[in-house]
Amino acid sequence: GSGGEGLTFAWVKEKSFLGEGGSSLGVGGLDGYALRFDTGTNQEGQPENYVAFSRITPEGIQDLIVNTSVPQMEDVLNSGGNPAPFHVELWLQGDRLNVSLSNPTAATPIPQRTILDFEIPDYDAADSYFGFTAATSETNNVHAVDNVVIHEVKMVPTYRFFSGELVTLSAAAG
Q1: Could you tell me how far CA 63 lies from the centroid of its own chain?
Q2: What is the pLDDT of residues 45-90, one digit of tens each?
Q3: How far apart are CA 51 and CA 171, in angstroms?
């Protein structure tokens, strides 16, 4: 592709089929949280390749934590010249979020490593709908999600979302 914006794994409070696109990656205007994988060329002063965990509200997007020390996520190819999918693991236990990233099929394999690990401030674990969003702006790119696995969903009295269970995401960069 020519550098499309990126994709998110989001959980939001209301059913919604469409958030704002472009640099909002499809979650702008929604209410909830998003793990954002930004792969596009951004405005001056913003990183081009990063992962962020964000609080999203109808008023805007607030990045709670950003990691710019992540492997290049766009146009990563395997030894045969085809897009090499990334493997993402997301753990949410109470208000603690842990995210790891790897790409074992890349021509130069990227070993698994933690890219985000923090406590979400003022985390609101309301009933949520989860899904994926993506956006490309004026550019284009493939933002594919492949092989989503939710190992076990436990409902706990205080929190009504995942409690320490593994969610595995694989996304093809391209």
Answers
A1: 12
A2: 666 788 999 999 999 889 898 888 888 777 788 888 888 888 888 8
A3: 14
* HEC readout, the chain: CCCCCEEEEEEECCCCCCCECHHHCCCECCCEEEEEEECCCCCCCCCCCEEEEEEEECCEEEEEEEECCCCCCCCCECCCCCECEEEEEEEEECCEEEEEEEECCCCCCEEEEEEEEEECCCCCCCCCEEEEEEECCCCCCCCEEEEEEECCCCCCCCCCCCCCEEEEEEEECC
pLDDT above 50 (res 16): yes
- Number of other CB atoms surrounding residue 65 within 10 Å: 17
Q: How many residues does the chain have?
A: 174
CA distance linking residue 165 with residue 60, whole number of Å: 29
User: What type of residue is 89?
Assistant: E
Residue 160's pLDDT is 39
72: left (phi over 0), alpha (psi -120 to 50) or beta: beta
Q: Which two tokens stand for residue 40?
A: 């596009």
162 close to 35: Cβ distance less than 8 angstroms: no
Measured CA angle at 69 (ends 64, 73), to 5 deg: 100
Q: What is the mean pLDDT of the chain?
A: 77
